[in-house]
Amino acid sequence: MAMTDLDIPPVRPSRAVQRPGAIQRLMSDYGQEIVVLLAIVALFAFVTMINPRFISANNLTTIFAGNAYIAVAAIGMSMVIITGNIDVSVGALIGVLATISGTLAVAGYPVWVAWFAPVLIGMAINGLIGVLVAYARIPSIVVTLGALSILRGGLISATGGTWISDLPPAFMVAQKKLFGLPVPLVAMVVLTLLAAAWMRYSAFGRSLYALGGNPEAAVATGIPAERRIVAVFIIHGFFAGLATILFATQLQVIQSTVPPNLELTIITAAVIGGVSILGGSGTVIGSTLAAILFATIGSALIFTNVSAYWLRAVIGLLILATVLADMFRRSRRI
Amino acid sequence: MNLKSLFRHEMLLAILLAIVLVILSFQSDKFFTVSNLLNQGRLMTETGLIAIAMTFIIATGGIDLSVGSILGLTAILTGVFWQNVGLPLPLAAAAAIAVGTFAGFVNGIIITRFRVPPLIATLATLALYRGLAEGISQARSVRGYPEWFYVLGQGNVLGVPTQLWLLLIAAVVASIILGYTRWGRTVYAIGNNEVAARFSGLSVERTKVALYTASGFAAAVAAVIFVSRVSTTRSDMGTGIELDAITAVVLGGTSIFGGRGTIAGTIIGLCLIQALKNGLSLAGVKGDGTIMLIGAVLILAILVSNLFERSGTR
């Protein structure tokens, strides 16, 4: 009982402790991830019975490739939340970066400039946010609420609400295929696995869990808290930049608005995927699975003829249920 | 020493407000007119009511991000109860306000019983309540309210906008409660040290539930005023109003960590924001430029007050 209850997954058991069985270990390390995965499978089975067209190749591409940018952005968000911080401005950031990227592409700059300028700018903006959080000691919720309105206001006043069209074909990387698979899908899987391994096995990754789990203890063991927090925000900006590339190049136009509450969807993906809202635990595999789950729910509502207007209510209920379950699990352990 | 620093922050802010008012009235001769100022008062009432309740919540170290969604939900329900269910309008509005208040109560229960951090709990209900508003409205809007209903949002009483009276009364009552009653002191005690407050025998949980319920109530009343002011009901009403309210509260000197803050400060912060919005739009800056400025003001205000705090006793 005590072993299966541990949901601080990536701590390697010491050799003195008797090792539990492989399945038990998998459950205790990735319990939440497995639950989300089962939910996806069950949803697929259920909706396909009602409407077989649900698993057509076309719809699968929509679900996986069309929403990969949310999963990629959720990787960085997960890292931020694991350190006990939050970022509510990432949706607006992606909107700003997409507009910059599209403007560069249309202006005739080489496509790699149009792709990677937003990544660098995203890292710079989030680095500034990280400095305000770590050194000026302003709570991350306040900094990012402020950043949210600065970025959102800046985006609309700079673009005037116009869309960017006539994007060069070479720019549209999200529409291309790699090994016969859509690029966003490949990017999502590769980035998730790399980030998950890095978070689990690198000293840097471990220090992020330590900071979120117990900041005082982490500082006492010599982890440079301020520098780590700035670094995690910069990494978050890096993933937001990569997410922007996928987002900006999937359609023929770039709108000056991003999907409403995109930041909330990204935070929700991280939390539902098992990243504890209090910091200190969770994995990016879970956040990616949760992003896929959202996309599946959205598509399932359409295929079962449920009004799309209820989508946000369903997602709201889902996040609330997950948060309550998380707190319940914690309270039982104490 | 606490009282002194409070005084200092509010004085600084009041002086800043005076300077802004002077600059803006030189900028445009339309700004410092009675009709314009009263109209600005009308526009800031909804945010003001929410910000007053938010002051209490932030003073306990909490936050309520769901107020904008509660506003939207209440607005939609007012329309639906009246037009689709067929209730008389006063009853429909009362029923909708009851639901909005209950939504706030649910926030309080989630935060106290399940010990979910307020930020996350209200972020979740932000999505849930807005989703319910969207689901119920199905993107339809409700119009054609009876003429008398517009008195609340568009009419005047004794030459002053009706809702401004409400804001005034709410501000006076709230500052008396927060400043001079046992209950108000409990709010500060929780914000300063929740564990100590609990060990002192204060009813921490009950106070918090009451505060989040009051916040829901304030957002719900703001919703009815909003509907009356703009003559229509839509599910996206009040989106982002939580940011305006939090900015006013924090700008007004309430510490985001809790334990410190006054209603007077919040009202000054509110006036400052509204004056900036109005002055900039009169000077030809678009609404989006104003949003940027508010974001920057929010970050700078906390940055400065943090610097003060660190040089002080903390």
From TrEMBL, chain B:
The chain crosses the membrane at residues 51-77, 89-110, 164-183, 209-227, 248-277, 289-308. CDD domains: TM_PBP1_transp_AraH_like. Part of the ABC transporter complex LsrABCD involved in autoinducer 2 (AI-2) import. Probably responsible for the translocation of the substrate across the membrane. The complex is composed of two ATP-binding proteins (LsrA), two transmembrane proteins (LsrC and LsrD) and a solute-binding protein (LsrB). It is a multi-pass membrane protein. Signal peptide: none annotated. One of its GO terms (molecular function) is transmembrane transporter activity. It is found in: Cell membrane. It comes from Mesorhizobium denitrificans. It holds the Pfam family BPD_transp_2. This is Autoinducer 2 import system permease protein LsrD. Keywords: Cell inner membrane, Cell membrane, Membrane, Transmembrane, Transmembrane helix, Transport. InterPro entries: ABC_transp_permease. Its main location: membrane. One of its GO terms (cellular component) is plasma membrane.
